[in-house]
Amino acid sequence: MEEDELQEKEFFSWEEFSAFFDAWCERRKVLFFVKNSVPLSKCKWATAPPRPDVVEALKYSSVRLVCKDFRGSSKPDQGGQQKGCCASIVLKMSPKKDRLIVTECQLTHNHALCPIEFAYYFKKGYLMANSCLPVRTTNKISKQFVGGPDVRRLLSYCKSRDHGVLDVLTVLDGLFASDPSAKVKLVFMEDKVIVQTIFFLSSRMMALSRRFPLMLFFDRMVGLNEEFDLYSVLCVDGAGRGREVAYCLTQRETPDLLRFTLASLVQSVPEVKLQVRCITLGVEIAHLEAVKELLPNARVQICRSQVLETLFSKAQELGAAEDERIWPLLCRLAAAKSPAAYQQAVQEMKTILPQRFVRYFRRHWQPRSEMWVQFWAFETARNVNACELLKQHQRRLLAALSPSPTVAQCMLDLLAMQVGSEAHELDEGELATHYRAICKPEPAGLIEEELGFARHGRYRFQETAEGYLLHDGLSKFTMDQALTRCSCSIYTSSLLPCRHLFATRLRTGLALFDPGLLHRNRAALLGAC
Q1: Which pTM does this prediction carry?
Q2: What range(s) does the SWIM-type domain occupy (predicted)?
Q3: What is the pLDDT of residues 372-388, one digit of tens each?
């Protein structure tokens, strides 16, 4: 009967078989291990090979599992050697190359089954671990920060390229080689060698969070791929740009991502815990109560334009008539400049929108009005267009990420975004106009020229105790902490901001238009005698 249960049974992934086999072994208290196998990645095909996604899912063209005692007992048993057990199971890929099938099974053991021995030797997830990393290793390291030595040790344990784990670890190894101070937290699915979540930030991103902790933004990126979601934490730099300070890649439907991400950020950069005054969240983000626990001084805001879009869609869903007054009304509601204006818009809502929508609004959005209505907005955030900032970030991500990227490729793309991405956003013309408005023509022309060099130069940066060190490939230049002075001949001869100051300010998030850069050369200013 046991043979009948297994014979010809089909599985559409190695993970599916592994989960089934774990439960099957636990019920029967039997111990099997892989005697031999043929990975699909090493097969040569006379006809068309299986699709890459099938290779990833099935992993093997054939696998033979044998009883733990197939070699027999090495101890004499009643004066003789116990013969090896013949119990075995064979899986092979189907002729259609789309599934694994149990083609042979011999389940009669020539020895008594021992529950105590089973409890000692059985390792749940063994078959998944056998294809890549030991499950006990991933269970132990899961939900912890890892460093370069940890990643190299995991790489040394890897047996194959299963689940993209090897690719992810290779990317992390490269990250730590170039940035040893980076922070990475890995989460594996329990008892499986499958990456569930990766939280990471570079030392540069940590520096941005320390310099600009006042306001943070957290949202999910739309349309990464079918399996994983990407969440970003942003700050606002001195030039008003959204800058990434942390990323979290996670399998879809992973719960409580806000708590996990903020906790990991605070663990990485502890000083931000008490410095954040406002965090703006995407409308889909749940478990907002985590903010008070992890960022006790922060006010929670929800992206106003996303709330508007949600309310408008819900009104249509709940039967609102096509009425050109609805959208302007919702806009007045969100942009209310006083409690009275807000209440007036709520009263008007009752006259033109269905009662079902009004009940929905009272239940879901009125209790949280202080999080999205303009009157109650965090004062400093009123000059920041959170919606536009998040949309710009989404556009940058969509432009930078490969189509339908793997987790490893997504990480590579995100890290590449951090290198020189600000230069593409530098508007030389606008900055030059600002400087021409306060400077005489000759110094304004020199500043415009230096802005161009700042954008197109190739520099390496290093933070020091005194300030910053910049390498341009030929020479090194030192700058103060405030980034107002440089050791180069351009600055020392003219006392005007040079390319090195602009490039470093661009990298660190400081404003490029800053009249304070001219405080040592007031003769350059218009109206100076």
Answers
A1: 0.72
A2: 477-509
A3: 998 888 766 556 788 88
